[in-house]
């Protein structure tokens, strides 16, 4: 670590849906910056006009906001080094490319695709590296004129120094690349389009990025970027230093292969509607390569920030386990206060059409009273919707699950329902009398003491008749919230 104030960054491309691997990189970069009291820069790599789109850009913004990964510089926030979308920085890249050409750090190469492929095949056949062979490094003015007379449009290549590159990776330790394996590379396409190899180092240099955390698939490009930073220092671009690099392990999916955008568990957009908390998802993603302690899986994000050290990231691939992700989310659900839980549940009940877009006082009161009944039973917030639906639906929309009815509301079950109905109807309907305690007392006296039934056989048919499902919150508390009238009506309906 250097003595410079930490400035870390996250620079995704707005192509397709945001995915888990991307968010894990954002989380580690953000936590690293916050741990060291530094800045976190968020910028958008949107120079590929064939794949980038505004919808994906907005999804990136929304996902970062939902996860709570706030940024100090970037879209919607601004900052001294804007603009923060690469598509708006094309003049900057063109100027930098020209400065590299003028200073002799880059050159124009006029090779055709066919010529390149022929020479690469020959190199492979000879057992040599198949990267660019530097043939156009030192063209004469006459050769350039001849190529341009043919109508050839050149790419701009960076002139790699012929030396070994050794650097300390923040995750993997010391790494060395031999110059034979690091050939001259393209900075700008023949059509003038700058590549990632130019745009990201340029932005990092100009924005003062001190630490670059990224996926291990980019490890092989690091010596190229180190050489480019050294050239930048020579021509006065940026702060004159090279960032430190840390290459994060792959996130693996099923079959021990890298988790891809096509894997369903990879799509970040699915997690919020399924009922995940951002805290739970971030907690699990942090475990994909890092841990707060050997014997501890559950922690808050502030606790992660306080403890996060990049050197403790495991360089080995991490496997994504959706079941463990759900279990950790459930732990975070149980950490919510009753008030916070109700607030988080409101959008899901609105989406299900169970409460209004502008919830009434009665609806919010019912949700506040009902949520504690399922607080300990949830792993996902959507499960509360399923378990509490019976309290919010109208009489016309209430339905009993057919499979549960077949198992619980046969002839014997209906006899239980009939006895329960009469016992409950005898309780006065007022709030003072219609309580959990009086409901439980009436049902136990009638069904267990009177009919000699075991609790499962006694309460199962009543539960199905009133809630519509054999899986529901505690029965007696549920009946109190449902109310005397609706309880009797649903029992009557089941008997009808």
Topology (SSEs and partners):
Layout: E1 7-10, H1 20-35, E2 39-42, H2 54-67, H3 90-102, E3 106-109, H4 113-125, H5 141-149, E4 155-158, E5 165-169, E6 173-177, E7 185-188, H6 196-206, E8 211-215, H7 222-235, E9 244-248, E10 251-252, H8 271-274, H9 278-286, H10 301-307, E11 318-319, H11 322-335, H12 338-351, H13 361-374, H14 382-392, H15 402-408, H16 411-425, H17 436-450, H18 455-467, H19 475-482, H20 484-495
Parallel strand pairs: 1-2, 8-9, 10-11
Antiparallel strand pairs: 3-4, 4-7, 5-6
Cross-sheet strand order for the largest sheet? 3-4-7
Query: What distance separates the N and C termini?
Result: 75 Å
**Biggest sheet: strands, sense, closure?**
3 strands, antiparallel
Discrete helix count: 20
Helix coverage percent of residues?
40-55%
Number of strands: 11
**What's the overall average pLDDT, rounded?**
95
- Calculate Rg over CA atoms: 32 Å
The residue ranges in which pLDDT falls below 50 over 5 or more consecutive positions are none
Class inferred from helices and paired strands: mainly alpha
* Strand coverage percent: 5-15%
> What overall geometry do the principal axes of the alpha carbons give?
elongated
